Automatic annotation (TrEMBL):
ATP binds at G30, A31, N32, G33, S34, G35, K36, T37. Keywords: ATP-binding, Cytoplasm, DNA damage, DNA repair, DNA replication, DNA-binding, Nucleotide-binding, SOS response. Belongs to the RecF family. InterPro entries: DNA-binding_RecF (IPR001238), DNA-binding_RecF_CS (IPR018078), P-loop_NTPase (IPR027417), Rad50/SbcC_AAA (IPR038729), RecF_2 (IPR042174). It is found in: Cytoplasm. It holds the Pfam family AAA_23. This is DNA replication and repair protein RecF. The keyword Glycosyltransferase does not apply. It comes from the Bacteria. It comes from Candidatus Southlakia epibionticum. The gene is recF. The RecF protein is involved in DNA metabolism; it is required for DNA replication and normal SOS inducibility. RecF binds preferentially to single-stranded, linear DNA. It also seems to bind ATP. Gene3D superfamilies: P-loop containing nucleotide triphosphate hydrolases (3.40.50.300), RecF/RecN/SMC, N-terminal domain (1.20.1050.90).
């Protein structure tokens, strides 16, 4: 699929704006604060169903309470309308004249987003790394989003019950069962993706950096976890969890370890090396999504291209020569 034209209304700093995608890569340039990321965000909302950096209301231009996006591609025209319908704020997707309250899974199109914040994959919290893997799986697995949100809802309920000092094991049991069923499925899918990262990362790192450094990636819990084992963990931690008022076991506490030359990357890798690890991970993300979904993801490079040295810029464009690439920069890049 190719994006041909983007038109937005009331998207952050933009009143109305139209952008034609004539070349590939398409470069969006402008001063800081001119609204480049907002255009990337609009593409993301149209193709993935929600923003990567804020609520719908935050997306509306200050002083307004609605926005519109029209993304014309060579296959569909995606329209997104956020605003007031009756007494409620709603978002509506209109794709080739059919209306949807949520963007249907089969109309979502895969995207790999590179943004300056990506270095947090290395130096941020475990949540940031879980998010990377979860967002990746969601792009090709139609069941994963609902497994995650059901796990999250059960977790919130269990944590709420744990705040009550009189809570018993029996009261928690139905939630433990739900958590262990969804949790085991989530862990297995994350482990599979971590294994793919591990398999490819060193070769890709060396291809970009032209040296012999090695990188390894591992899910924090390597063994296969069945739902029965997970259920036992929730039950065994009952006293601890009640004292803490929160659930201490399960995939919401897991991490993805990134090791650079046998030492955790956060301790050992320089900023440039971290950037290269992240770049290699993004390459794997794009490759794997295409392999699993059969669709070459659209690559959105927000303000990152200019930060790479020439060698890495070449590696990036060579890797994505078959993909549509949209990039933003404050300066012209050649
Ligand atoms: N809801 C909103 N309404 C109006 N302006 C907003 C809204 N949200 C953010 N802004 C402003 O919009 C501007 C554009 O932000 P955006 O991140 O798209 O710019 P950018 O061109 O990517 O900037 P940079 O080069 O600094 O990354 C910023 O000045 C921001 O403060």
């Amino acid at each position: 699929m190719r994006i041909i034209r983007l038109t937005v209304q009331n998207i952050r700093v933009h009143d109305t704006k139209t952008l034609d995608f004539v070349t590939n890569p398409t470069l969006i340039t402008g001063a800081n604060g001119s609204g480049k990321t907002s255009l990337i965000e609009a593409i993301y909302i149209a193709l993935r169903g929600k923003s990567f950096r804020g609520s719908d209301l935050a997306v509306c231009r200050y002083g307004t309470d609605f926005y519109r996006i029209m993304l014309e591609t060579d296959i569909f025209t995606y329209r997104v309308q956020y605003g007031t319908v009756g007494a409620r704020k709603t978002r509506q997707f209109i794709i080739d004249d059919k209306k949807y309250a949520r963007l249907p899974y089969k109309l979502k199109y895969p995207i790999v987003l590179f943004e300056p914040e990506d270095l947090r994959i290395i130096n941020g919290s475990p949540q940031r790394r879980r998010q990377l893997v979860d967002t990746l799986i969601q792009q090709y697995d139609p069941h994963y989003s609902s497994q995650l949100s059901r796990y999250e809802r059960a977790l919130q309920q269990r944590n709420k019950l744990l705040k009550d000092p009189s809570v018993t094991r029996d009261v928690l049991f139905p939630w433990d069962v739900l958590l262990s069923d969804y949790g085991a499925a989530i862990i297995a899918k994350r482990q599979a993706v971590a294994a793919i990262f591990h398999e490819r990362i060193t070769a890709l790192y060396r291809q970009i950096a032209h040296n012999d450094d090695s990188v390894s990636i591992a899910y924090s819990h390597n063994d296969t976890v069945t739902s029965q084992q997970l259920l036992r963990q929730y039950e065994e931690k009952f006293d601890y969890d009640r004292a803490a008022g929160a659930t201490s076991a399960g995939p919401h506490r897991h991490d993805i370890h990134i090791i650079f030359n046998h030492v955790p990357a956060i301790q050992a890798a320089s900023r440039g090396e971290c950037r290269t690890i992240v770049l290699a991970m993004k390459f794997i993300e794009a490759e794997y999504i295409e392999q699993q979904s059969g669709m070459p993801p659209i690559i959105l490079l927000d303000d990152v291209f200019g930060e790479l040295d020439e060698q890495r810029q070449h590696a990036l464009l060579a890797e994505f020569r078959e993909n549509q690439v949209v990039m933003t920069s404050t300066v012209d890049v050649h």
